[in-house]
């Protein structure tokens, strides 16, 4: 697994903001642009030829919404079929996803991303068809382009706005473990999750 941690966005945390930490996973077939989307969001970069993810990559990014700071723990999963059996390990405990089948928790925030919007001549799905599918399945939908940065920040901000943010969390605390990135099956002491309902 690669660990590509991110820097705080220019709209970084403000003093006194509630801090909430959420696990977000990106799932989808190989070469749909999952890694490019995350790289654009976290580092503001785009690479024309992105190496395939092996297993999963972990990145973090922080965004601010009014009085709340949302820290995303982002798991970018491999799309190759040989890694499909690992996917449940990565999306277990996630509160949000981009391109995830709606067969998970009913409380999960799911965003459908029509990525590579800059390649209009190679469009595989009509915008209205994708929007109708998203509407029928209560999904957040945006067309995105990691290459041009179209709607990249916007899709993550829209996810951040939909996540529950009820209880404050102290900055720097190692909380949210029950909602965060605990990929082991061993029992661990329960910690109060951030912003639980």
From TrEMBL:
In this chain, composition skew of type Polar residues spans: 167-177
Outline the segment boundaries, as ranges, of region: Disordered. 167-197
- Keyword presence, Nucleotide-binding: yes
Matching entries from Pfam families are given as: Ras
Q: Which domain of life is it from?
A: Eukaryota
Kindly list any coiled-coil regions of this protein.
none
Q: Which keywords has UniProt assigned to this entry? A: GTP-binding, Nucleotide-binding
UniProt keyword GTP-binding, yes or no: yes
| Entries under PROSITE patterns matching the protein | RAB, RAS
Q: Which CDD domains match?
A: Rab5_related
GO molecular function annotations of the record: GTP binding; GTPase activity
NCBIfam families to which the protein is assigned, alphabetical: small_GTP
What family is this?
Belongs to the small GTPase superfamily. Rab family.
Q: What is this protein called?
A: RAB5A, member RAS onco family
